[in-house]
C-alpha cells in the first residue's frame, strides 16, 4: 500500500527547517491549504454557480475584477486572519496592505504577499488558473506591520513561497528553503497529498513561453532570442515549441515539470513589465531557484530586487537554468 503523506503531516515533519518555528508556520500553511480547497471547490463548480464573469468593479491594477478574484481574495484573507499567525497581507486586489488587528493576529510573526487568483482572463474559458503566495517573517517588533519595513523586504528574505494550480488536478507546490514539493488534492479525502517530492526544473528544455502579440515592442535581445528558438539546429534541439497559457502559474508549472523558459519582458503597455514583484515574480523566483532553475529581470536575480512599491512591476525571465542564461546572453549582447 503506497504511503500517503498529507500536507499537514509533511509540514509537521519538516517544521524543524523553519528557524525558530514552533508550530506557527505549520498553522499558517494549514490555513492556506484550507483556503485553496475552498477556491478549488468554486473553480470546479464555475458555470453552475454565480462565480463566473465580472464583478463590475476595477481593481487597483485597472483590471476588471472577476467574481473569482474577489472570492479568492476574501477566502484567503479570512483563512489567514483565522490562523492567528499572520499580522498583515498585501494582495493584488487591495490597494494597501490589510492589517489584522483582532486577537492574536496583531502580533502574528508572519506577513504574506498574495495573488489570490492568477490568470483571471482564463476563468470564464475553463483554462487553468492559480493562486500565488509569498511568506516573510515580520521585522517590525509588534503591533501593526509596516509597509516599508515588513513588506519591502527583498525576495531573498522569503521564509516560504508557493502556488496552487487549479487545473486537470489541483496541486499545491511550495518551498520553505529546502527544495520544492508538490501536493495533489485528493478530493475523496479532502487532503493535499505529496505527489511530487523534491521537484527539479530540468536544466534545459524545448519550450519557450511568451506572448508574441507584444513582439513589435520587445527589447531587441528578446526578438533575437525568439528567432533563435525558431531556427533549425538539431545539435541544440531547435526549433523549440511555443506554449503560452496566459496564466503565470500554469506556464511556470509546465516548465518546471518539462523544462522550458517563460518570458514576460517590458512592453509598450507595460514599460517595466506586467508581472508584479511582490506576489508573482518573487514567489515564483524562489521556487525556480529552489528547484535548480533561474529567475531574472534581465539584469539581476529577481530575489535581489529591493521593492519600492506594493504593486511594482518587473520584467520576468524564468525557468530552466541554461535557457534563462541563453536569454541573458541575448539581452546583454543586443543591449
Ligand atoms: P492576474 O490574472 O493575477 O492579473 O495575472 C495575469 C498575469 C499572469 O498570470 C500571466 O502570465 C499574464 O498576466 C498574462 O498576461 P498577457 O495576457 O498580457 O499575456
Ligand atoms: Mn497574477
Ligand atoms: Mn490575480
Ligand atoms: Mn489581475
From TrEMBL:
Statement: the UniProt record of this protein carries the keyword Magnesium: yes
Domain Fructose-1-6-bisphosphatase class I N-terminal residue range list: 6-197
EC number: 3.1.3.11
Pfam family, any one: FBPase_C
The organism's place on the tree of life at top rank: Bacteria
Cellular component terms per the entry's GO annotation: cytosol
UniProt-listed InterPro entries: FBPase_C_dom (IPR044015), FBPase_class-1 (IPR000146), FBPase_N (IPR033391), FBPtase (IPR028343), Fructose_bisphosphatase_AS (IPR020548)
Enzyme class: hydrolase
Gene Ontology biological process terms, A to Z: fructose 1,6-bisphosphate metabolic process; fructose 6-phosphate metabolic process; fructose metabolic process; gluconeogenesis; sucrose biosynthetic process
Protein residues bound to substrate: 118-121, 211, 244, 274
Location within or outside the cell: Cytoplasm
Residues where Mg(2+) 1 binds: 92, 115, 117
Cofactor info, note text: Binds 2 magnesium ions per subunit.
Main location: cytoplasm
Cofactor: Mg(2+)
Annotated pathway: Carbohydrate biosynthesis; Calvin cycle
Catalytic reaction equation(s): beta-D-fructose 1,6-bisphosphate + H2O = beta-D-fructose 6-phosphate + phosphate
Quaternary structure and partners: Homotetramer.
Family as reported in the entry's similarity comment: Belongs to the FBPase class 1 family.
PANTHER family: FRUCTOSE-1,6-BISPHOSPHATASE-RELATED (PTHR11556), SEDOHEPTULOSE-1,7-BISPHOSPHATASE, CHLOROPLASTIC (PTHR11556:SF35)
The protein's name: Fructose-1,6-bisphosphatase class 1
Organism taxonomic ancestry: Bacteria, Pseudomonadati, Bacteroidota, Bacteroidia, Bacteroidales
The gene coding this protein: fbp
Amino acid at each position: 500500500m503506497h504511503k500517503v503523506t498529507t500536507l499537514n503531516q509533511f509540514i509537521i515533519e519538516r517544521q524543524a527547517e523553519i528557524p525558530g518555528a514552533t508550530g506557527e508556520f505549520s498553522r499558517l500553511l494549514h490555513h492556506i491549504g484550507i483556503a485553496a480547497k475552498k477556491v478549488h471547490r468554486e473553480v470546479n463548480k464555475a458555470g453552475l454557480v454565480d462565480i463566473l464573469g465580472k464583478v463590475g468593479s476595477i481593481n487597483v491594477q485597472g483590471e476588471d475584477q472577476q467574481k473569482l478574484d474577489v472570492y479568492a481574495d476574501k477566502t484567503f484573507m479570512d483563512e489567514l486572519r483565522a490562523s492567528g499567525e499572520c499580522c498583515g497581507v498585501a494582495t493584488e486586489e487591495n490597494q494597501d496592505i490589510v492589517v489584522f488587528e483582532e486577537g492574536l493576529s496583531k502580533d502574528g510573526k508572519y506577513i504574506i504577499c498574495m495573488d489570490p487568483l492568477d490568470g483571471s482572463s482564463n476563468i470564464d474559458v475553463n483554462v487553468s488558473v492559480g493562486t500565488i503566495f509569498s511568506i516573510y517573517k515580520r521585522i517590525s517588533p509588534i503591533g501593526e506591520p509596516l509597509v516599508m519595513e515588513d513588506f519591502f523586504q527583498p525576495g531573498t528574505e522569503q521564509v516560504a513561497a508557493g502556488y496552487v494550480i487549479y487545473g486537470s488536478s489541483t496541486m499545491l507546490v511550495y518551498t520553505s528553503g529546502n527544495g520544492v514539493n508538490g501536493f495533489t488534492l485528493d478530493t475523496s479525502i479532502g487532503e493535499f497529498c505529496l505527489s511530487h517530492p523534491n521537484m527539479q526544473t530540468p536544466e534545459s528544455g524545448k519550450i519557450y513561453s511568451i506572448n508574441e502579440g507584444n513582439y513589435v515592442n520587445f527589447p531587441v535581445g528578446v526578438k533575437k532570442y525568439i528567432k533563435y528558438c525558431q531556427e533549425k539546429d538539431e545539435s541544440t534541439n531547435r526549433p523549440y515549441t511555443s506554449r503560452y497559457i496566459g496564466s503565470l502559474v500554469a506556464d511556470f508549472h509546465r516548465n518546471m515539470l518539462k523544462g522550458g523558459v517563460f518570458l514576460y519582458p517590458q512592453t509598450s503597455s507595460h514599460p517595466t513589465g506586467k508581472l508584479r514583484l511582490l506576489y508573482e515574480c518573487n514567489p515564483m523566483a524562489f521556487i525556480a531557484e529552489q528547484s535548480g532553475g533561474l529567475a531574472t529581470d534581465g539584469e539581476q536575480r529577481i530575489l535581489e530586487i529591493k521593492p519600492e512599491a506594493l504593486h511594482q512591476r518587473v520584467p520576468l525571465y524564468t525557468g530552466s537554468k541554461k535557457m534563462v542564461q541563453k536569454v541573458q546572453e541575448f539581452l546583454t549582447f543586443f543591449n
